[in-house]
Amino acid sequence: DWNSGNVIAEQVARIREQVGSARVICGLSGGVDSAVAAAIVHEAVGDQLVCVFVDHGLLRADERRQVEEDYVAATGIRLVTVDAREQFLTALAGVTDPETKRKIIGREFIRTFEQAAVDLVAEAAHDGGAIEFLVQGTLYPDIVESGGGSGTATIKSHHNVGGLPDDLQFALVEPLRTLFKDEVRAIGRELGLPEPIVARQPFPGPGLGIRIIGEVTQERLDLLREADAIVRAELTAAGLDAEIWQCPVVLLADVRSVGVQGDGRTYGHPIVLRPVSSEDAMTADWTRLPYDVLARISNRITNEVAGVNRVVLDVTSKPPGTIEWE
Ligand code: XMP
Q: How far, in whole angstroms, is CA 77 from its chain's centroid?
């Protein structure tokens, strides 16, 4: 019978044996897998672990603070944040093609993480240590999926920490390799991690960058972050988080429509709500949200988010629609 305490104890013993006195690096994404993987490793080897969090500017409201403050307070983990917001905005300037955006974000991410790793390796060497291991939050389903490659075409190029260059080689520590998502969450709770991180719904690596249809700019990111925060707050308040797999909020940045508000005419952007129900994200159905919840979200967004004068609902299943718009 499965017990999160036993799994943690087993993994802690395994990691201590694997790592010895070497040092370990881990990239945090803000998501549950990397957060739990790092927390287990920290249980095992304490300050031999250092974590890196890249703020690419495509995060949602409050995510950076949750990692830097709440997660660090809960775990005592040593964290280095890299503020790469300018770098990503510059790299994405003028780009509208979805796959090009994904490739740029993935490339900049690896570059940034790699530079942080190089700096930390040098720092460790300076005080006589060596970083030999990289933690990855790989789950059991991830392994099964990537093993069964049946030659299907790439629909979207996903990004994850991992594709590091040959001259920056680490052995992998993968404490979640035998686990499913709900088990990872149970372990996260057992380790006392903040609930917003443990309960977090899936969020794509390229973040808000692929939820702005059109060029990514600072202004558009701020606008989308506000709308997304309203949607998440209202869904949580309505007790719907467990029912929904995730709810991308999408900004149609190159579309405008006419509206009327207060003293007169508006010409603003639409926000799309994409609530989906799913078991594994391979297929999905659109979630039949209660009308009163939809009404509240629509009222709040159009009243509170400057530049948005219309809220629309995506009623497409997957297939044929993917969950994310890009
Ligand atoms: P799609 O849009 O392909 O999304 O139906 C399926 C699931 O994957 C998430 N997603 C990503 N996750 N890196 C990730 O870690 C990515 O690049 C990425 N793109 C999409 C998406 O949110 C959904 O849960």
A: 19
How far does the chain reach from its first CA to its final CA, in angstroms? 41
Q: Can you tell me the ipTM of this complex?
A: 0.99
- Rounded to the nearest angstrom, the distance between the alpha carbon of 324 and the centre of ligand 1 is 7
The atom of ligand 1 lying closest to the CA of 318 is: 5
- Domains in the chain with CATH codes: 4-198 (3.40.50.620), 211-313 (3.30.300.10)
Pocket of ligand 1 (CB under 6 A): 156, 158-160, 202, 204-206, 246, 281, 318, 322-324
Residue 95 assigned ligand-binding role = no
Instruction: Determine the residue type at 240.
Output: L
pLDDT tens, per residue, the chain with 326 residues: 789 999 999 999 999 999 999 999 999 999 999 999 999 999 999 999 999 999 999 999 999 999 999 999 999 999 999 999 999 999 999 999 999 999 999 999 999 999 999 999 999 999 999 999 999 999 998 888 766 445 556 788 877 655 667 777 899 999 999 999 999 999 999 999 999 999 999 999 999 999 999 999 999 999 999 999 999 999 999 999 999 999 999 999 999 999 999 889 999 999 999 999 999 999 999 999 999 999 999 999 999 999 999 999 999 999 999 999 99
Contacts with 157 (C-beta within 8 Å, 6 or more apart), sequence order: 99, 102, 103, 106
Residue written as tokens 């005419």?
265
Q: What is the pTM of this model?
A: 0.94
**Among protein residues, the one whose CA lies closest to atom 7 of ligand 1:** 281
Task: Give the residue, out of 28, 157, 250, 324, with the most ligand 1 atoms within 8 A of its beta carbon, to mutate for a pocket test.
Answer: 324
The answer to whether the CB of 285 falls within 8 A of the CB of 317 is yes
